[in-house]
Design goal:
Largest sheet: 3 strands, antiparallel
Radius of gyration: 19 Å
Number of strands: 3
Structural class: alpha+beta
Strand content: 5-15%
């Protein structure tokens, strides 16, 4: 058995960015007509460096280009230019922390069996 089965990257609050002010597309809704697919039907999104957005409505399907209603004024930013989503660590209660630890340990032991 592999003693280190996972590659772990620890993230803190500074990793998460706010995309509130990035306006590239009006909507990610895959369909525009009544009865068409909605945002909550999306199972996956893939963004390319060229600005294309692909979606999957079923995990077994191939990626399809998302029909986009592009905005006239694009406001693209680099990762460094994006605002932080959180200014400080988000505090959780001791009870929540303990619950997360118990759930993690039980799932980890199940995976390693």
């Amino acid at each position: 058995m592999n003693p280190t089965p996972f590659n772990v990257k620890y993230l803190d609050h500074t990793f998460f960015k706010s995309f509130k002010n990035v306006k590239m597309v009006k909507s990610i809704r895959p369909g525009g007509k009544p009865g068409a697919a909605k945002v909550n039907d999306i199972r996956g999104l893939k963004y390319t460096p060229e600005g294309e957005i692909f979606d999957k409505l079923r995990l077994s399907e191939e990626w399809t280009i998302l029909p986009q209603r592009r905005r006239q004024e694009l406001s693209t930013k680099t990762w460094a230019e994006l605002d932080s989503l959180h200014q400080n660590k988000i505090e959780i209660s001791a009870r929540k922390y303990s619950d997360l630890q118990v759930n993690f340990i039980s799932r980890l032991s199940w995976l390693l069996q």
